[in-house]
Every structure is written in C-alpha cells, then in structure tokens.
C-alpha cells in the first residue's frame, strides 16, 4: 500500500505534528514501506482465528469502587507549563 | 403524527438522541479518584486521570455493574464480551489525547423505552446501544480574558452513553424520551439524572423529510443540558432546515450548539475535521467478559420500574394513565402515594397527592422528600373526610394549615373548630334564617328559577363558615324549598 502526500499531511495534522512541505514526499515513501512490510501478514489466512488479546491467559483485572487515589493537586499540577488558583491554564479555546 | 407546515407542504422531523449519563459510583471508571461534584479544582485527580506517563487504567467493577443494571432496566441485550477502544482527539481538557470508550462492541445492545405522552398514550422508542466511557475534564472560559482554565476533577468519571434509534418525530416525544430515561435511571440508582450539574447531557440529532421519503441529512446539536432546551433546539433546528431546503439549498451534516440566550442553534465549525477519531482497541485493557450468572444475579435485584408500577397502579388502584404517570415518574412520589392510599380510597388519595400536595410543593419549589405534610398526616386528613368529620372544602383549608405548620389534620380541625356540623337541628336553623332573609329569592325559586338553589347552598355554607355537611344541607334545603 502506498500513501500519497495529501494523506501524510492529513495524518500529521490529526496527530498535531508539524511537517514541512518538503518532507512530505520522503515521509510518504517511508510510511508506505512500513505498510508494505506489515502487509505481508495478509498472506496468512486468519479467517477462523479469534483475535489474540493477550499473550498470557488472563482476564481483565477489576478494582473495587473505593476512593484510593487523588487529593494531591500540587503534584498533579507540578508539570503544567502554566497554572493558577488550582487550575491548569491554557490558551483560550472557545467554541 | 405531528407535521410542520412549510411553504411546500408538510414536513416530518426525525430525531435521535444520544444521552450521556454519569454513573453513580464512588470512584472513577479507571482510577481510584473520587467523583463527588463540586470539589476544589483538581483535588480529585489521580495520575491516571491526568495522563502521566506509564499510568495504567484498572476498571471499576461497580461501574460495570451499573451499566449492566441500566441495560437490564432498558430491557436490552447484555453483551457478555465487550471491548474498550481509544477515541482519539486533541482538546485541552482531555489530557490523554484520547477518550477510553466502546465502539464496535459495546457492553449493552438493543433495548427499548416506552414514552408516556401528555395525552395519556404510549409509544415505544428503540435504544440502539449503551456503552461505557470516560468523561473529559472541564474547561472554564470565563476566568481570564485570554486563557482557559482546566479542572480535571471530572476527567475519568464513568459515563454511560445511551443512543436511541431515530424513532422520534416531535420535540414533545424527544422531551418524553429524556424524562422517561431519567426516571428509569433514577429508579435503578445508576445515574442521579441531575441535568443542572451536568450528570445527564444530550446530543440531539435532527433531520427533516417529506412524509414517506428517506431520511434527510442530519445535524447534531451538542451538549444540551435541559429537557426544555432539547425541545426548543429541535423546534428551531427543524424550521431552520426546512427553510434552507425550501429555498433550494441543502443541509450540511455538521455539529451545532444550542445558544441558550439567543434561542438559536449555531455551527461549531472547528469540530468538523476533528471527526476522524481513528478508534482502535485500547491495548491497556483486555476485553470485558461478563459471567452470565452474575448478570442474572443483578437482574434479580432490579426494583419495580416505572412501566410496571404504572400498570399496577392502573390495575389495582383504578387510576387514569395520566395520574399513574404523574405518580410513578419519581419513585419517592410513588412510595408516598402508596402509603397514603393504603387502606383508603385510592382515587381520593391520588387526587390529594397529585392535586393539592404537588400543587403546593411546586409553588414552594420543594421535592416530595421535603414535604411538610407527611404521607401519614395526609392519610389522616383523608380519614377525616371519609368519616364526615370535615367536608372536602374545609379539608383544603386544613391542608393549607398542615402545609404551613406540619401539624396533624385532627389537631388543626380541633384547634380551629372546623369540625363539620352534622346536627340536623343546627343546619335547619341556619337554613330557616337564610330563607327568611331572602324571601324574594325563595319566591323566584318556587316560580321556576331552579338555578337559585346554588345561591341558597352558598348562603347556608357562608352562615356556617363552611362547616355544614354539604349532603345534609342539600337534603334539608330541597325539602324546605319544595315543601
């Protein structure tokens, strides 16, 4: 499968990664190669094989409905580039 | 079927609803942080909720149970295997950059909701699915001129998204749907249904078509937070779409907002390209598998739900569908009514509960739980009417005093001397006095002006401060006037 420049630009935008116009061709080539490599898996007929969800035979772990976490606002906010009055502060985003 | 009149003929509105209902739980869906409303900003946030690197989600088993309970209450199919997916988008109040949700394999499949319409009729609307997902944080735009403040307390709280089929055809039906869903959730104890605090929010899908034609292009009105707004937004949006089509235009499928000050819907252009969510199974979470016996055990603990309760009230108490609806809409109301009706005339009890009591509560802005008149005391009042201690008219006066003071009916009747006069001699005396004072009217009555009977009854009641037994007054008055 090969990706064109427009598709690469769209993926970059969805991922909020800034890609200069002149790099799009190069990236389209690399991403296409990766896809082609992975597409080899299509040679195996997996029609009757249920998807494998885990390498170990285990079930989804569950937690009791108890409050065991939170209450450390300063730690949570400590990595925020800007904070005020207990909030994260970001550039205005308004609909 | 209600159509909208356009320039080119009748139009039909087609409505589907997505309701986000916050699950009642102590802790969040995938973390141990608290869910309580109104806490200090960011005080109920774990490192999972703030998306710190390496933090892993662990599912809250009570939230699973709540979703299953809701599914059972909607008579829906419970999927014993479901899968959590990542829904990818960037927004400042979504620290992970994705929301954990369920896409192709939700926990609950097809169900139904019976709408109780204002005219007493019912209509069944299909539920497409119910899935579990995380809520996002909250953005505050009014704290700073150039900045948005973010509170992640809500981030990670469990939501049930309940999606309806496009089965509704009027704003009224959509309103009835939200009311009924809210009622069922509250009966089940799975969501408190508080739309003001945002624990229930609606996305409304609206399209229009000529009757019998295929569905038109729909617009989605996001995050409508009251039943009244849902109905207003539908009315506005349908007319907007009809106008565009009739002027030769076409509807763009888009996301819109209900402006609660201008009463219009308007486009949210910025959301358009964001619709590519690139769902994929969340690699941090194994599929959710349910034990069929566990589901059966939950089923056994379901309460009597509004539809069953309504049917029972109609069958056992001989109530009208309308009264039954009003009483079963809230479990507390139904319970109150049943304690009043126990051992008494159920129809009379229904009249007092839905009439006087609800009227006074409404005026006072109180919920039934805060009623100054207890079920026991209202029952006591009805007993006094039944044994002729007071008339129905005096009872209303007594009720007013009960509502103000919370006292028992019997005490008020004694204190105010409101006991009904059933002494025929005393009533006869009052009647004689009234007839003597109105000799001219008596003559008119006897010459055929039957309507004056009511005037005499009124005068007698006035003379006895309303305490005379009305049946006795009628009886004796008839005898005296005709005699």
TrEMBL record, chain A:
It holds the Pfam family GatC. It catalyses: L-glutamyl-tRNA(Gln) + L-glutamine + ATP + H2O = L-glutaminyl-tRNA(Gln) + L-glutamate + ADP + phosphate + H(+); L-aspartyl-tRNA(Asn) + L-glutamine + ATP + H2O = L-asparaginyl-tRNA(Asn) + L-glutamate + ADP + phosphate + 2 H(+). The keyword Manganese does not apply. Heterotrimer of A, B and C subunits. Allows the formation of correctly charged Asn-tRNA(Asn) or Gln-tRNA(Gln) through the transamidation of misacylated Asp-tRNA(Asn) or Glu-tRNA(Gln) in organisms which lack either or both of asparaginyl-tRNA or glutaminyl-tRNA synthetases. The reaction takes place in the presence of glutamine and ATP through an activated phospho-Asp-tRNA(Asn) or phospho-Glu-tRNA(Gln). Belongs to the GatC family. This is Aspartyl/glutamyl-tRNA(Asn/Gln) amidotransferase subunit C. It comes from Azospirillum rugosum.
